[in-house]
Task: structure prediction
Amino acid sequence: MNDFQAIADRVEIEALRGEFTDAAMMRDRPRLASLFTPDGALRMPDIPVEQVGREEIRAGGELLQSQWDFFVQTTHPGTILLDGDTATGRAYLQELARTLDGRQGLNYAVYHDRYQRTAEGWKFAERVYEVRYLDTSPLAGTAPHAARGSVTSPAAATATPAPAASFADPASAGQMERAAAALRAGGFAAEILDDAAAARVRVKELVPEGAGVLTGASETLRLSGIEEDINGGGQYDAIRPRVLAIDRAAGADEIRRLVACPEFVVNSVAAVTETGSLVLASGSGSQLPANAGGAAHAVWIIGAQKVVPDLNTALRRVEEYALPLENARAQAVYGMPSAVNRLLILNAEPRPGRGTVLLLREAIGY
Result:
């Protein structure tokens, strides 16, 4: 290899590392994943996270960034050792981050890299992230609202937020596939079905006859017929009819125990993100414990219009679209307004096999 080729290789590898930081900061996970070889690996043992292959790197990164309030990464050049069509190196970085659940801190870390020359240029064969210093003291700063979304370009950074009416539009096939992949990366089982009729059949396959089942207060379940199948069909130990028959004052403790830990909970959500998060809202909070982990098994049926890009958009959908519709229903049925008094966000399922998400290609519910 001549000196000019070595210089060119070093410049290209340095640009590759810069592109990684830019993609991370701009929350452009497809671009970040494309910087790896098809079987490349991103390993972060201190977190711990290990992602192998471009799809895992993309989906895992989107799951991680859905939890950020803000994230800032600064990368400094390190070593590059060339060896023909391969190379090794290190890059040094400083990061500031705060998550939506309040975790925050400053850290200094090292990327230990392996690079591979490909037909597309130099790519990462492996990045291993090693934390050298971590300070979890509260951070005094804040981030502008736009920085919390999925900003991938200057135009996106200044774009007007989507109007609430767009929250009724079905997601594209690509959006559905991205959401399903991210959910699977987070430990959920995720299936894409054509419509509510298919979901009705699938629920009967997933929930064995005789099982104790709690249904959520969901327009999706009502409109699809799944609510009637479970609560009125006689095939299951349906919990909601039992709860409605108990005096709410004298039997409050019994109601609380029944709804908190059923064998199965079948419900919908207010939104699901392309980064793999489920968002449920409630006025009383009574149905949330079962969804959060109290139920041994959970099945969520979700219409195509509920798929949104990220967590911030999901929260907007709850407030701007779902709440007004639920408020009108509550006024008509109960004579009182609704409110988002409790909010549950499921970013991952730590018990593989517990939670199944049925994404429908049709819009149903709200």
User: Anything to note?
Assistant: Residues 23 and 81 are 24 Å apart (CA to CA). DSSP finds twelve helices and 17 strands in the chain.
